[in-house]
Amino acid sequence: MPVASHSAFAEGVSIPCLSHIVGGGASPDFHSLCGEITLAICDNLDMEPDNKNGGPNFLRAWRLYRQMTQEQLAEAVNTSANMIQYLETGERGLSAKWLRRLAPALDTTPGLLLEHDPHQLDSDIIEIWAHAGTRERRQISDIARTILRTGTND
User: Fold this and answer.
1) Are 64 and 123 found together in one domain?
2) Quick one: which of 10, 27, 60, 135 has the fewest CB in 10 Å?
3) What is the rounded CA–CA span in Å between residue 103 and residue 113?
């Protein structure tokens, strides 16, 4: 079977009977995977090299904000300092798995690690939010929305 080129994947490519690929000649009598399938693979050919692992993040800024070394953070999440460096520089992607491990160690949330430099946020708000439970966060959000909607005269 010929191998499809990269440009073929961008446009979609027909793949012959999957049973022939998987089983080396199995027939439709054995399972329902036989038949021609057309795959349309979305491949962002214009992706910038800097964004290949999910784009920029603020892991380093949060680590420094919490006055931790790479070694201290690595120990807190049971990995190596080299891995922390790879995650900070974007050489390795900051996946959901990593976000769930790193955020508690940095006393923040996964979303803040991805979206906000802690040095550009009000530190009181960061600390209040980081230490609030789910119920309290809903209440804080409701109060903040009320204040923004009604305004204050301070």
Assistant:
1) yes
2) 135
3) 7
The answer to whether the predicted template modeling score (pTM) of the entire model surpasses 0.85 is no
Does 131 fall in a domain?
yes
Name 69's Cβ contacts closer than 8 Å, sequence gap at least 6.
63, 81
* CA 32 from centre of chain: 35
- Each residue's pLDDT tens digit, 109-123: 898 888 888 888 777
Residue 48 lies in a domain: no
Determine the residue type at 16.
Answer: P
One domain, residues 68 and 35: no
Domains of the chain: total = 2
- Structural domain of 12: 6-39
Please give the torsion angle defined by the CA atoms of residues 73, 79, 83 and 84, in that order, rounded to the nearest 10 degrees. Answer: -10
Closest listed residue to residue 89, CA positions, set 68, 61, 48: 61
* Separation CA 120–CA 143 (nearest Å): 22
What is the rounded distance in angstroms from the CA atom of residue 50 to the CA atom of residue 14?
32
Specify whether 137 is located in the same domain as 73.
Answer: yes
Q: What are 56-82's pLDDT values in tens digits?
A: 789 999 999 999 999 999 999 999 999
